[in-house]
């Protein structure tokens, strides 16, 4: 899975960090997840504890979008066989399917293919009737990959506001409030369009806390946010939005455009949502691998958020505590966490939150027995082609250059020179980020020439 494994593994601590990452990503793969949660016996579809008699439906569709949606659709198509009548999925990682039409869209900024796919998806949903069963695959990245701009909002205007939001430091919850109110699909609106069909949401969560109204901007669940909330977020972050978006939101506030559907809408009674995998799925698999290798483990949380470079300092402090007091566990130890950190852009460099977390952690380390790794489980960190990075105390040297790279949001070149970047390519899943801190015992450290760094001169 790690394409440059031989370069990034420099010590046993690097090795176990990479093993944990691989185990986590593998555990969240759609094929594995669906294999554990979805099955078909005769004419009966089983999803976790619920069952659906496929004979009750005249058509069965697969609709959805997100980074892992293509693989989910492929697996579901093979399970449903002749029961499946069609579908549309928008993803940036398309697969081969016979009955489901794949649109390859762009992430994190939407493109023409995403718009075309979302429009075709809405057409199929609108044509659905009472005897239609819609399996909706929803994964991280769905907000960008299923744009469906509302009113007169153009794709160019949507791209502009998306770029500004991503650079603003706004949380994913805040970003998606605005996205819901400039889309025809998000914020429960897909459920409204699909009524009276039976709709089953199959979700792989990339959101801290698995908030269904945030994952892919909540196309199947009620929305309690408002047009006014969207305007407030624009004001808080000082965004200058295109005129078409300002006019559409203003019309919403004035009651000229219906609000996104709230919990009082009865059509949500025909919607059944299942979260099949999340960040904890990945962390538990990583923990199992570490324990099998003889490490004590401590899982901090699967809900980490905040500025990436600041979160890293907490991880370094936890490692120091383990070394000094063997609290909460003693070395050799693996500390695990996950979530979705953010970066408030100050510069115009190249990198991503996982790379910034790793390099910031490296700056805090003073002991060669500690390694910090941080990767995005989808394999693409920020707008870069790396999944993240794995570092030790020697990575962030010279420290002044490392600090300058962080200040300019340009950590990718620095980490590349240090051979610390982790490359996986698109992984086919997306359950947030995995953070791994490995603390070895003093006598387990590789010394001298065994630590053969071939990158940046130390």
From TrEMBL:
Sorted UniProt keywords: Kinase, Plasmid, Transferase
A molecular function GO annotation: glycerate kinase activity
Gene3D superfamilies: Glycerate kinase, MOFRL-like N-terminal domain (3.40.50.10180), MOFRL domain (3.40.1480.10)
Tree of life domain: Archaea
Pfam families linked to this entry: DUF4147, MOFRL
GO cellular component: cytoplasm
Domain (MOFRL) ranges: 334-433
Location of the MOFRL-associated domain: 18-249
Protein name, per record: Glycerate kinase
Species name: Halocatena salina
């Amino acid at each position: 899975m790690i394409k440059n494994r031989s370069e990034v593994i420099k010590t046993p601590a690097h090795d176990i960090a990479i093993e944990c990452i691989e185990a986590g990503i593998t555990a969240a793969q759609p094929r594995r997840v669906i294999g554990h949660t979805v099955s078909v016996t005769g004419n009966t579809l089983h999803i976790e504890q619920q069952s659906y008699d496929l004979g009750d439906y005249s058509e069965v569709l697969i609709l959805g979008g997100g980074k892992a949606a293509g693989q989910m659709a492929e697996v579901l198509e093979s399970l449903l066989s002749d029961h499946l009548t069609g579908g549309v999925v928008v993803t940036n990682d398309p697969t081969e399917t016979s009955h489901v039409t794949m649109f390859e869209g762009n992430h994190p900024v939407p493109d023409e293919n995403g718009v075309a796919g979302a429009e075709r998806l809405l057409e199929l949903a609108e044509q659905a009737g009472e005897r239609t069963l819609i399996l909706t695959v929803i994964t991280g990245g769905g907000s960008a990959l299923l744009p469906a701009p509302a009113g007169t909002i153009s794709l160019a205007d949507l791209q502009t506001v998306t770029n500004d939001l991503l650079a603003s430091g706004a949380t994913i919850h805040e970003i998606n409030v605005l996205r819901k109110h400039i889309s025809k699909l998000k914020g429960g609106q897909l459920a409204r369009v699909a009524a009276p069909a039976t709709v089953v949401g199959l979700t792989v969560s990339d959101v801290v806390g698995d908030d269904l109204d945030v994952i892919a901007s909540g196309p199947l669940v009620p929305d309690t946010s408002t047009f006014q909330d969207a305007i407030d977020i624009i004001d808080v972050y000082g965004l200058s939005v295109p005129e078409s978006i300002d006019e559409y939101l203003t019309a919403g506030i004035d009651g000229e455009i219906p609000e996104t559907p709230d919990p009082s809408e009865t059509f949500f009674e025909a919607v059944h949502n299942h979260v099949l995998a999340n960040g904890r799925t990945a962390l538990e698999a990583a923990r199992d691998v570490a324990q099998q290798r003889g490490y004590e483990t401590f899982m901090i949380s699967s809900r980490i958020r905040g500025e990436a470079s600041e979160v890293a300092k907490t991880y370094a402090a936890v490692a120091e505590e383990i070394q000094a007091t063997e609290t909460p566990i003693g070395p050799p130890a693996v500390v695990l966490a996950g979530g979705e950190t953010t970066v408030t852009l100050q510069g115009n460099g190249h990198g991503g939150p996982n790379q910034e977390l790793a390099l910031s952690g490296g700056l805090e380390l003073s002991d060669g027995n500690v390694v910090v790794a941080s990767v995005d489980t989808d394999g693409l960190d920020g707008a870069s082609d790396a999944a993240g990075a794995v570092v030790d105390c020697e990575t962030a040297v010279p420290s002044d250059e490392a600090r300058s790279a962080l200040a300019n949001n340009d950590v990718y070149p620095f980490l590349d020179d240090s051979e610390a970047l982790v490359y996986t390519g698109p992984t086919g899943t997306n359950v947030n980020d995995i953070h791994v801190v490995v603390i070895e015992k003093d006598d387990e450290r590789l010394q001298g020439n065994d630590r053969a760094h071939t990158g940046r001169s130390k």
